[in-house]
């Protein structure tokens, strides 16, 4: 298809300003729609270049582009990145003083800004409309657009007021963007924003560079610490469902000598900002956080995301794991899971008043529970949930790389079901296992369960072994968990009768009892055969420059850009500008010290490669 003059201009901006040689899937269509004055909804996975879909048109339009985002932390991050590329950008939000906001508004009125980032709350004030009427607004982008939908996983009712923007700016095309929206959510976004015959782009939800792994919790703190230690200093995020747990996990990691800090909404704003800044600048390795952190983190070199607790929805899990591997290099997403996590979330949800919103949350919780308990390719579960119908296993998740080994589990199941029945179906997992293993404790003696025929019949297996088998019997529908004020009790279902009578065959997965959450198969890097020694030297230089400039290292150059430099080893301006991520401004501002190290490295390495003269 022949390219329009507008899209050719945008491609030139992409190369000269951002340093990328071509569009990624979906970008060209989204940019072209905006440049033709058309409204649009862009659904694009994190890390696939969503921000460029509105940043490129913003640089091609003559006036100001408004970017509305609920993520205050992301605003500064994106503005810093735009400034590093020589683009006039700023933001307005509650973190600024009145005087600072006035300075930004004056720049916008004077036509000195191309992009202005705003929070939705700011847009809904009368003072905003008084100010913005003095500016020439050419284009509006609404990021994290799923927040406007009652079907989205992060619905914020006040955001529905953004539907009034179309009437206020009838001549400015509006682009709504999100990384996570199923078909129902997409329709709700379009309706609430009142977009006019919009262009719709729904990209692939697949992030093939991310490996998805689920680890059964046995000794969860030890398992998590072992996993993080095995990452050998790589940047990562650990998500927890409570502030208290985030602090405890952070302390446990620090005791293992790992550079970690916690982050949650109960902290002082200045302390949260310090933790986020230190993480972005590679001064700390791991942030242990509640969902208050990371939705808008733009750090490109996060190599792993671990969930110490179950997320409340697949959308939340997908978005949180999407913080990893934004640079397209290999990354890990590890979920530590036990059925009690699901039971706790379900109990909390059912305590809410009955409403349509509670029903939506319940549906989403059930879906993430099914994902955690799946014995099929994890990526297929995720993609099919979002309506991206696929059947071929991915080859890069724990199920594909290390398929569950099966064994005849009928006798194990009979032992467990008998123990639940004979103890009166009034106890939880740990008590039933205690009876099976013949534990000599006061509670068992008080109930005289040490006299039962099932007492001690499972003492040849570990507690973790029986935990795994009980979880499988729950997943298979032979046991159900009943939660009350005392705790979670195990009950037999009607299907358990056939197992107890030995009327069916029963295959179970051999329990995996490793305390280290890793999969042995190595991941291939997106860029292969690059010089690892040179890459290490370039990373060291990047950190020095970033500290001097007071910006995060990835704003200087991403890991992917440094890997390309280490592979192609450019030694001239023309060669350096062919490296993805090196634009004209970054060439002038940062590139020459990197080129000097490359030249020095080649001078040292190449003589060593030459054969000795005869």
From TrEMBL:
PANTHER family: ATP-DEPENDENT DNA HELICASE Q1, DNA HELICASE RECQ FAMILY MEMBER. GO terms for molecular function: 3'-5' DNA helicase activity; ATP binding; DNA binding; four-way junction helicase activity; hydrolase activity; metal ion binding. Residues 31-199 form the Helicase ATP-binding domain. Residues 220-368 form the Helicase C-terminal domain. Pfam families: DEAD, Helicase_C, HRDC, RecQ_Zn_bind, RQC. This is DNA helicase RecQ. One of its GO terms (biological process) is DNA recombination. The keyword Thylakoid does not apply. One of its GO terms (cellular component) is replisome. Belongs to the helicase family. RecQ subfamily. An ATP-dependent DNA helicase which unwinds DNA in a 3'-5' direction. Plays a role in recombination.
